[in-house]
Amino acid sequence: MNIFRFAGDMTHLASVLVLLLKIHTIKSCAGISLKTQELYALVFATRYLDLFTDYISLYNTLMKLIFLGSSFSIVWYIRYHKIVRRSYDKDQDTFRHYFLVLPCLLLALLINEKFTFREVMWTFSLYLEAVAILPQLVLLQRTRNIDNLTGQYVFLLGAYRALYILNWIYRYFTEPHYVHWITWISGLVQTLLYADFFYYYFQSWKNNVKLELPA
Amino acid sequence: NAESQGHDEL
User: Fold this and answer.
1) Which residues of A touch B6 (CB under 8 A)?
2) d(Cα A15, Cα A74) in Å, to the nearest integer?
């Protein structure tokens, strides 16, 4: 464990807590894409298959439970909670996220480190995580008015993967056999998808104006 | 195990 990875995990944890806090306290999911949340639940479900078979550390197991629990409860809130679901904007959240799942699955079957069920599922979760934010970014472009919590949620989500890139660079130089091109490339693609959001987020923060994304 | 495959990350 290194500081970049720990900071990345904490930033990732903060992003889901900000989202849960928003939904739980103001009982609203306005501006949140259910599709992105469903994709994230699928990412964790396919990545943490080793939850009960490979024990790595208490930290690792605990964080996996938190990420699984929070992502599925966020989906539950938006889908079934009688108050929250009313603020879900399904007419705007129209990204066909199934078109993301299939290509990621096919790609995982083609390009993976080892052709086993667990390894293909793990690779699928990496590819899917890289594109999972797209429905959310599309929704932000459409709804234009980004409330603070949603902006912070997306920012933290992007920052966590950027910190992971620093972690991969650190591990590459400190651990002789640590080479994972698939992880690195999908992580880089994921972070690049946030690039324009980061730009507008910092612009709004610097000029102290409300965050607006160009149409 | 997970360590060797590098899947020790979240």
Assistant:
1) 178, 180, 183
2) 12
Q: Is there a contact between A12 and B7 if contact means CB atoms under 8 Å apart?
A: no
Residue A24's domain comprises 3-204
Considering only CA atoms, give the Rg of chain B. 5
Residue B1: is its pLDDT beyond 80? Answer: no
Number of domains composing chain A: 1
Selecting from B1, B6, B10 the residue whose C-beta is nearest the C-beta of A60 gives: B10
Chain segment A5-41, per-residue pLDDT in tens: 999 999 999 999 999 999 999 999 999 999 999 999 9
Tokens linked to A91: 């007419």
Task: Answer whether A50 touches B (CB < 8 Å).
Answer: yes
Mean pLDDT (chain A, rounded): 94
Residue A13, in any domain of the structure? yes
Q: Is residue A213 part of a domain?
A: no
Residue A211 within any structural domain of the chain: no
A67 inside domain: yes
